[in-house]
């Protein structure tokens, strides 16, 4: 720093004086423990009980990890998981292709439309999935009422393809809209979008390059949290897919999983999927956090 | 256009000054006319500061030059080539913004390399350039730092290096110092000027700080309500303001009551002074504009302190170093400021009765309304 003549401190580290309030803080800590304890009981007891249920067979008084082994060989497990992951990814892609340009355009050029976009994005929150799916079913029914071979019939049939029902991501985009919108909105609020865009444009970047290199990297945490919420939502969604008679993961757990020995398979699968989503969550937030702080210079 | 003598346009970093011309710019936002026929011409390598009260259109003009906004009417041209239809990313301008504008996800070095990367410069060459430019702006060895690890002043230094990295034809500075504290602002002011002269790059600089404008620029363009009021070298602007607005806006100005007493003559503080520029008809009540340094003081008799024109009482003495600024309240309630050499100012302590003694030089007058 020898050449720097600025004397202002760069990102000074502050250490709050904690000692003075030591006594008050101790009381606060005590309450924290109580609150945390109550929450832990609330969340962990059901999980622990489920785990116990999957291990212990009361009739024979035996413990066994067998249900965890069975699930991978259970019929339809792999297919349903893969289908759900694919649906989730397609949902996220469609969602962001629609939402990111719309939100950037509104922020930069049409700030007056922001309340409109915001209320539109919140509508699905008050929309009951059952009402939504009944509507969707009716519309798909119109298509199937056509003569086979007509484009409308074909479209309705393709949308309901059993191995990859495109109608699900389309409906999920609507349902996930509020969550993705909120995540992106908080991401956008933390950056000075207008200045970033103008700085990038001024340096010679076209619009697509500006979005890709200057805007999206700074929305990363918002994009990530929106994607995680969407993924979780798709994995847990049951009403719509089961009424439309598809067999993604959630429906499979209920239908086929329960048919297995002593009903231990379904809770075992649920627990495992919970653990997996946590792992993804931790991984993503760890990667996101680390890259935001100090990313190795890969461009040079 | 008067070309002001400035540092010769050197070829320090491969850039060469170009001439920039803004002609007949009009821009309205709803009912507000931000620009109403604005003209300005910059000679190659010249630094021109646009100065004016907020809302006078100076930032709008800069954004139109950068291509972030389009004029309703008028044109921007570089070396005679019309730029108006070109989008911002095709204009080869370097801009430094008022707010911190570094890309938060990139290091200082990568920020500087952003423009060259778009121009397909190799990674090794970009790193070398970035190191060189960061050194130029006093940030040697800081290429690996992220913006959030830098102070405000350091961020603006990197922003300047980033703007220079694309070898811009014109450098645009949009109040780059206004978010910084006073000390850093002074240092950076001198460095921007040094670098600008070293590169010989034509520079347009927006500021609302007249001291900044007067100390940095080859010429200062004073704007008012979307139009150019006067564009001249700082000394000329200060000593020979073209209009009353410029006179009042630049520097400190006294407004003393006076009366036109003849062809281009005005009576103020019991003296007759020649009038510079427009002069109303004889007998008109006017305000006479006088700089504090062209007002001298003489002792007056205590008894007459409240009565005769141009006499009053010293209310306040502000020590400024070599000079002291004395604030005098006249009999009619107007206040006048006079700058006296400090050794003479002690002759007029606070409370003493004084008479104003304007220097016998031509003055500007405005009708009292």
TrEMBL record, chain A:
Could you list this entry's UniProt keywords, alphabetically sorted.
Answer: Cell inner membrane, Cell membrane, Membrane, Transmembrane, Transmembrane helix, Transport
The answer to whether the entry has keyword Oxidoreductase is no
List the membrane topology term(s): Multi-pass membrane protein
Which superkingdom does the taxonomy of this entry point to? Bacteria
Q: Provide the ABC transmembrane type-1 domain boundaries.
A: 81-284
Membrane-spanning parts: 30-55, 87-108, 120-144, 164-181, 223-247, 267-288
- Give its localization: Cell inner membrane; Cell membrane
Cross-referenced PROSITE patterns: ABC_TM1
A GO biological process held by the record:
transmembrane transport
What Gene3D superfamilies does the record point to? MetI-like (1.10.3720.10)
Q: Entry's InterPro entries?
A: MetI-like (IPR000515), MetI-like_sf (IPR035906)
- Which family does the record assign? Belongs to the binding-protein-dependent transport system permease family.
What is the protein name stated in its UniProt record?
A: ABC transporter permease subunit
UniProtKB/TrEMBL annotation, chain B:
GO molecular function term, any single one: ATP hydrolysis activity
The EC category is: translocase
Which keywords appear in this protein's UniProt record, sorted alphabetically? ATP-binding, Nucleotide-binding, Transport
One Gene Ontology cellular component: ATP-binding cassette (ABC) transporter complex
> Any idea where the ABC transporter domain is?
20-250
Q: Which SUPFAM superfamilies match?
A: MOP-like (SSF50331), P-loop containing nucleoside triphosphate hydrolases (SSF52540)
Superkingdom of origin? Bacteria
Could you tell me which InterPro entries the record lists for this protein?
A: AAA+_ATPase, ABC_SmlMolc_Importer, ABC_transporter-like_ATP-bd, ABC_transporter-like_CS, Mo/tungstate-bd_C_term_dom, P-loop_NTPase, Transp-assoc_OB_typ2
Report the EC code(s) recorded for this entry.
7.6.2.9
Recorded hits in PANTHER family, A to Z, give:
SPERMIDINE/PUTRESCINE IMPORT ATP-BINDING PROTEIN POTA, SPERMIDINE_PUTRESCINE IMPORT ATP-BINDING PROTEIN POTA
* Name of the protein described by the UniProt record: ABC-type quaternary amine transporter
């Amino acid at each position: 720093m020898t050449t720097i003549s600025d004397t202002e401190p760069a990102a000074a580290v502050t250490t709050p004086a904690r000692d003075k309030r030591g006594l008050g803080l101790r009381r606060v800590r005590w309450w924290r423990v109580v609150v945390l304890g109550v929450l832990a009981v609330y969340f962990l007891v059901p999980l622990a009980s489920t785990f116990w249920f999957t291990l212990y067979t009361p009739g024979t008084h035996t413990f066994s990890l067998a249900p965890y082994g069975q699930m991978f060989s259970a019929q339809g497990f792999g297919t349903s998981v893969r289908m759900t992951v694919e649906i989730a990814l397609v949902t996220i892609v469609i969602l962001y292709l629609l939402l990111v340009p719309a939100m950037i355009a509104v922020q930069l050029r049409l700030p007056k439309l922001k309340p409109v976009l915001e209320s539109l994005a919140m509508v699905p929150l008050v929309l009951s999935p059952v009402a939504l799916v009944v509507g969707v079913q009716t519309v798909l029914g119109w298509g199937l009422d056509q003569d086979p071979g007509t484009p409308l019939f074909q479209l309705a049939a393709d949308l309901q393809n059993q191995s990859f029902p495109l109608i699900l991501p389309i409906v999920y985009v609507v349902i996930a809209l509020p969550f993705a919108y909120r995540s992106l909105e908080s991401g956008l609020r933390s950056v000075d979008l207008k200045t970033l865009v103008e700085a990038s444009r001024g340096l010679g970047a076209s619009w697509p390059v500006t979005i890709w290199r200057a805007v999206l990297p700074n929305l990363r945490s918002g994009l990530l949290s929106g994607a995680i919420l969407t993924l979780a939502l798709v994995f847990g969604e049951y009403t719509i897919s089961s009424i439309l008679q598809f067999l993604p993961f959630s429906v499979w757990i209920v239908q086929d999983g329960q048919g297995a020995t002593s009903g231990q398979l379904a809770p075992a699968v649920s627990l495992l999927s919970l653990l997996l989503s946590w792992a993804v969550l931790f991984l993503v937030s760890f990667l996101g956090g680390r890259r935001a702080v100090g990313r190795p210079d890969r461009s040079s | 256009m008067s070309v002001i003598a400035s540092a010769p346009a050197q070829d320090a970093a491969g850039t060469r000054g170009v001439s920039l011309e803004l002609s007949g710019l009009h821009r309205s936002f709803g009912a507000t006319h931000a620009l109403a026929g604005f003209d300005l011409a910059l000679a190659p390598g010249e630094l021109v500061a646009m100065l004016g009260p907020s809302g006078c259109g100076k930032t709008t003009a800069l954004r139109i030059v950068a291509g972030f906004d389009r004029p309703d009417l008028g044109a921007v041209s570089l070396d005679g080539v019309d730029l108006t239809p070109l989008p911002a990313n095709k204009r080869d301008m370097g801009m430094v913004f008022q707010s911190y504008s570094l890309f938060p996800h990139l290091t200082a070095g990568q920020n500087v390399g952003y423009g060259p990367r778009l121009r397909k410069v190799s990674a090794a060459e970009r790193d070398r350039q970035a190191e060189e430019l960061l050194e130029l702006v006093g940030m040697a060895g800081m290429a690996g730092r992220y913006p959030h690890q830098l102070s405000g002043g350091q961020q603006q230094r990197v922003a300047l290096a980033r703007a220079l990295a694309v070898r811009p034809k014109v450098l645009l500075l949009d109040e780059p110092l206004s978010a910084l504290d006073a000390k850093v602002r002074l240092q950076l002011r001198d460095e921007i000027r040094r670098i600008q002269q070293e590169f010989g790059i034509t520079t347009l600089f927006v500021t609302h700080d007249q001291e900044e404008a007067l100390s940095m620029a080859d010429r200062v363009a004073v704007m008012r309500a979307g139009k150019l009021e006067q564009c001249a070298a700082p000394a000329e602007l200060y000593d020979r303001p073209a209009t009353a607005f410029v006179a009042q806006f630049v520097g400190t100005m006294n407004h003393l009551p006076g009366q036109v007493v003849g062809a281009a003559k005005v009576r103020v503080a019991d003296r007759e002074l020649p009038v510079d520029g427009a002069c109303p008809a004889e007998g008109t009540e006017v305000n006479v504009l006088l700089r504090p340094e062209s007002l001298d003081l003489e002792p007056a008799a205590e008894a007459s302190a409240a009565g005769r024109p141009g006499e009053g009482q010293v209310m306040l003495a502000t020590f400024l170093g070599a000079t002291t600024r004395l604030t005098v309240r006249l009999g009619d309630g107007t206040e006048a400021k006079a700058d006296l050499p400090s050794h003479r100012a002690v002759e007029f302590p606070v409370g003493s009765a004084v008479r104003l003694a304007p220097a016998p030089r031509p003055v500007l007058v405005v009708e009292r309304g």
